[in-house]
Design a protein that fits this description.
It contains 16 helices and twelve strands. It is an alpha/beta fold and 355 residues long. The relative contact order is 0.11.
Length: 355
């Protein structure tokens, strides 16, 4: 590896936006799990090729290198042909693979031979993953978090969006996790990210925050769907977050849930499959009654019962246990999630936070 065509990880991450293109040469499967922000995938070995070469390497390393080199050369040629329009005179890419080894080294060599000032990331994705883990362990302690607490359907997420629109700093964990955090929280037609991809998205969001200004965030459990908050962030929110209790009239909450979960109107059986998991907590008879209400289209009545009989009792108990400062938290009441109520709540939250 030529010392003139590489870049140390710390320097690369500090100036990531300065590269024309960030090229990930790992396999599509590796790329799908997680990658550097904004990276494009130019695999020098696809999923099957990587498996074939890896298997052969265990039997005959030299033969594996010969076979692998030929495949890599053909794939690099194909990428150069396909991306010729991208590669203009002052184009300057960053190239990386898993550990900054032969795969990215091969692509970087070709690009430099053409005449581009391409740089290979020392340590590759593994170094980036280490940076993400280290930063997510250290960064939460720097922030003054204002934690919006409240019952299901009280408009906390919409308040976050309105606060962001008003210029406040917001960390929207549910948006990063692509999940609303409850048994019904999966978003239609959107898969959750892998844990590594969630960590990367969280890292990207947090490094852009200003520690001198408060950060508004919604109260969350340790897990949001299938992904988990880093423990330092989870503890910072619960032990040092400034809680604000958000309250909304029941009619407003039901209307908000009808809007947020409107996709279930055409998928009652999908809804019923999800709440079937509540049998152990709420009893078979009650859950079957709820399922019958879904089939008959009684959505407003159903959401009202779910709030009163399932979400509210467990949620308030959990919040009280995990946020000891909640008992003395200021309270903001909304009639509904309309622009009038939301605007007033935003002004009150900004005043409370001193933002």
């Amino acid at each position: 590896m030529s010392q003139y065509h590489v870049i140390a990880s710390a320097e690369a991450f500090a100036r990531l936006d300065g590269f024309s293109t960030v090229i990930d040469v790992r396999s599509p499967a590796e790329f799908a799990e997680d990658r550097l922000p904004g990276a494009v995938n130019w695999p020098v070995l696809d999923n099957d090729e990587r498996r074939i070469v890896g298997t052969l390497y265990k039997q005959d390393p030299l033969e594996a290198r010969k076979v692998g080199a030929a495949i890599v050369a053909r794939n690099i040629a194909a990428h150069l042909d396909a991306n010729r329009a991208l590669m203009q005179k002052h184009w300057r890419p960053l190239v990386y693979c898993w550990r900054g080894g032969q795969r990215s080294g091969a692509m970087n060599w070709f690009l430099n031979q053409i005449g581009f000032k391409s740089l290979q990331l020392v340590g590759g994705y593994k170094a980036f993953r280490g940076e993400v883990i280290r930063t997510l362990a250290e960064l939460p302690a720097r922030f003054d978090f204002v934690v919006l607490c409240g019952r299901t359907g009280s408009g906390k997420t919409r308040l976050l969006h309105a606060l962001a629109g008003a210029g406040a700093q917001v960390l929207d964990l549910e948006a990063l996790a692509r999940h609303r955090g409850s048994v019904l929280g999966a978003l239609p037609d959107q898969a959750q990210p892998s844990q590594k991809a969630f960590d990367t998205a969280l890292w990207q969001a947090m490094v852009r925050l200003d520690p001198a200004r408060p950060v508004f965030v919604e109260s969350e459990s340790r897990k949001i769907g299938g992904v988990q908050l880093p423990e330092p962030l989870h503890l910072r929110l619960r032990q040092h977050g400034r809680c604000v209790w958000i309250d909304m009239a029941e009619a407003g909450r039901v209307q908000l849930l009808l809007e947020d979960y409107a996709h279930f109107r055409s998928d009652a059986e999908g809804f019923n499959a999800l709440i079937g998991g509540l049998v152990a907590l709420r009893g078979r008879e009650r859950v079957e009654r709820w399922q019958g209400m879904a089939r008959s289209g009684q959505w407003a009545e159903l959401f009202g019962e779910l709030m009163r009989e399932h979400y509210d009792p467990g949620y308030e108990r959990s919040l009280t246990n995990h946020f000891p400062q909640l008992s003395s938290a200021p309270r903001i009441s909304l009639e509904d999630s309309g622009p009038g109520s939301t605007g007033q709540a935003v002004q009150a939250l900004l005043a409370i936070a001193g933002a």
